[in-house]
Here is the input.
Amino acid sequence: MKNKMAVPWALFLIGIVSAAVENCHGAQYFGKLIGKLSELHHGVSGEVYAVDARTLFIKDFTYDGQGPAAYFYASVHKTADKNGFRLRDETGSGAVIRRYRKEGIALTLPEGKTIHNIKIFYLWCEEFDVNFGDVKIPRNFDYPRPQKIDPLTGVHAVSSDNVVIVDAQTLLIPNFSYDGEAPDAKFWVGKGSRPTPQGYRVPDENGKESPLRKYDRKTIVLTLPGDLTVFDIGHFGVWCEEFTVDFGHILIPQILNIPPSLKMLGISPQSKLNCEVLLDNLAFEVRWAVAGESIVIQLVAKLNDGEYMSFGPSGDENKTEMIGGDVVVAWVDKETLKGYAEDYYLEDKSQCSGPTGSCPDNRLGENTNNINLLNSAMVNGYSIITYQRPLKASDQFDRPIFTNHSQAIIWAIGPLNQRKEVSFHSKYLKQTHLIDFGRPATWSCPMPEVEQPSMTSAPSIFAQQLPQGAESTSASQEEFYEEPITTAPKKTNGRRRISQRVTQRPKENNDDSQNSASKTEEQTQPTRRRQQQKERPTPSAVKKIVPWVIPPIQCNEPEDGVFYAQMGPTGGKRGYPAITGHVGWGISWYINGLLIPVINVVRGRTYTFVVEGGIDPEIPAKYHPFYITDDPIGGYEYKTPEERKNITIFAGVRKTADGSVEPTGTGRLCNWVATGDLDADDYPSFGAYQRSLELKCDPGEPGFIEWTPNKNTPDTVYYQCFTHRHLGWKINVLDSCDEQSEASEYHSSIVPAPQSFKNKLDSDLESSPSISVGTRKK
Here is the structure.
């Protein structure tokens, strides 16, 4: 429990799954091929794959079912004989193998056994000591396993420890941080080595595609959407979709020996999960799965505000006894939605006082809390807590959980006191209740009569099936609060609703419903991915707020026709958002020290823009090439070919030999930075706010472009950023400048250009033509 990366990876294999999908080579991915079963007797055939250290998958497994006592076997010796050991079938049953016809099945090795330990897998008839078919495990076989790759690092405080590719559709991001300041940041993947708008959104750890909130060293698990796998992508990172900004990304290796996801194997969750009802009238249920040397438990109940639910091994393993019990006390704060799971030792039937009573373990001794909270949720009024604990007793206050026989359990529900510790229970277990935690997975809970919320809104390691009678509407599914986790759930794509348990339906109906669901998913997923790729986000509308008065730059200002284009803050609610009607990214163009002023120019006159928006394309958040266009949005670099056909660029780019365009309006980065303690919204006017700004420039030279509007130039054009959307504003193009404007109370703040630039401006530029004037880019 102390080592975050030491938890068995088998936990990631618990989740809702559906039809198999294809990898980048067009073939289904099942893991690493071990070999084909030898076809000895009873029509046995199939291909055996290693999914991970303890899981085998047999593709197209066929067996006529006629053997009187045939079982799946494996052995640590090279020979298939009775000295091997049994494997349970794909349902967890130890029964004689049934008939199979070209079916895919997954088998798990017993506890303590891995593929490294076995040398042969076979079908063995115990009654007649006959091998029906086998496959040998190659020496030093390299089975698929999670692969650690680079850590995230970037702007907006984006960082993490080394990212782990858990399986073909699951990523673990340990200790992820992000400041939450950008308006439209998403987890993002795509082809190639760098993010583009043609990539794909990855739902967050709660299954949502909404803009990312702030993270502070939180370990999260992400599942690739739909049928997407890591074999289809070249990078993963954080991307500001609305403004096409890369906040930081890493490359996905091209060669990966990793497990497939259970979704790709077509395995149903009921083969992994157990459920028992504890108290029917409060829909109090316990769900669990044994994983390696630990067990993952989920408690669900309809609790009142300020109530807890507790569950754990009894003080006496043969009968229900509170004294000496080892329970977890769990609840969800309905105001903050924060979940809690505390390790308790019940020394006495009293509240905790000093070292006696019903006390949290950490009040009885240091480092004795052996409970790891994985997920907490409040869904339709039901508190859902998922936690992990060791099977063995870790200290004197713990009791073991057995997997080889039944044992007595205890549970209770009651109010929390002011210290957020247990008070005397209002409901509790009055009769002995035995549970076999190591049994083949059995779901003994009632099924809901309504469809379930999608996994997108319930990202626990278990299917978030609500208790009977729970209403299920998307509006009522509330956001989860998750504690940092030491391991993490395998999540699904969350794109279809969870159906009722098929094991409760007649087999013939079961097959039809599964086929129908599979077909529906296969038909809709490609469409969803295409829609996701093509959708272009539009900035959110902003409430009408009286904008700051930013004086326009008149057609006779400045006299020399030189404008300084630098970066600066958007100016709070009354700045960029109120002026343009669109949400700002956090930075905007400043022209001669003014926040996105309207610029008035005259046809036939040449203007020079000194550009100080950044020069290094390897740091996208600090790279803002300046250009002039008829596009009010900007971000030409990431426009689609169809969008580019309708856009004209008047200055700031040049054509390359291959017919593409590249920006020329680049130079050192200069930023206007707020120096006072007040927020932008606290200032009464832009003039007051402007006086709090200080210009800070990186070393280097500014860039410059020239532009001469002519008779064909539209009356309104825009100055924009070539790589990001919505950073600039309007330019009015006039036929003449007849009226003198009155002097403004605001004063432009201009940083003198370096002498090298002045010399070049005085000589070369006077005779050189404008750059890309009036060129329509296709």
Q: What stands out?
A: DSSP finds eight helices and 43 strands in the chain.
